[in-house]
Amino acid sequence: MTVELAIRLMADFLVIPIVLIAAFLLVFTIPKGKRFAAYSRILMAGLTAYLIARFVSVIYQPEELRPFELLGVDPGASYLNNPGFPSDHMLFVTALVCAVWFETRQKKIAFLLFLMAVLVGVGRVLAHVHTPLDVVGGVVIALIGALWYSTKPRNLEEHGHGKSSPRGSHRHRKAVVGKA
């Protein structure tokens, strides 16, 4: 395997297993009664991150040319015809990692997805289609979108209303109407 192929695999094709794993977890591990709220948070986080990224890309571009254009070499991965800040690949995979982290209880798999996302970012830089600033910009903006997950209600057990609380402690006494 050549170095160029390894870089292309990291920069482009590693996104595919991230998407497939995240989709599987988000479809099959979120309880049915909580899916609407979870998918609403995921949608809002993604849309918020995307809109912020588009706004930032209009008002701020650190470079007019991508690194491969500045270096006079061929790009080592796919890219859109724009200056590249922030990285859409990193925005997307970071948003997926955050969705899995916050909406499922699969922390080990979410950490594996995080490592894969780091490899995507490294691959994008090594492929000369992004600068490190482009990659970090995509991650930071996705994390801003992830603030929507702060609206997720905590476990009932954390608030003393779950299985560990004494029986009947959450029941209210009946009020007697008309007696003072």
Question: What's the quick description here?
Answer:
By secondary structure, the chain is mainly α.
Measured distance between first and last alpha carbons: 85 Å
SS strand fraction:
under 5%
**Structural Rg:** 22 Å
Low-confidence stretches: 156-166, 168-172
Describe the global form: globular
Average pLDDT taken over every residue? 87
Class by alpha and beta content: mainly alpha
H/E series: HHHHHHH
Per DSSP, the total helix count is 7
Q: Residue share in helices?
A: 55-70%
Report the strand count.
0
Domain count: the total is 1
Largest sheet: none
Question: How would you sum up this structure, described in words?
Answer:
With about 180 residues, the protein is mostly helical. The chain has one domain (about 5-155). It contains 7 helices and no strands. It has helices spanning about 5-15, 15-30, 35-60, 65-70, 90-105, 105-125, 130-145. Helix 1 crosses helix 6 (about 105-125). Mean pLDDT is about 85; it is low at about 155-165 and about 170.
Features:
single chain, 180 residues, mainly alpha, 7 helices, 58% helix, 0% strand, globular
Map the helices and strands:
Elements: H1 3-13, H2 15-28, H3 35-59, H4 67-71, H5 88-103, H6 107-126, H7 132-145
Helix pairs in contact: 1-6, 2-5, 2-6, 3-5, 3-7, 5-6, 5-7
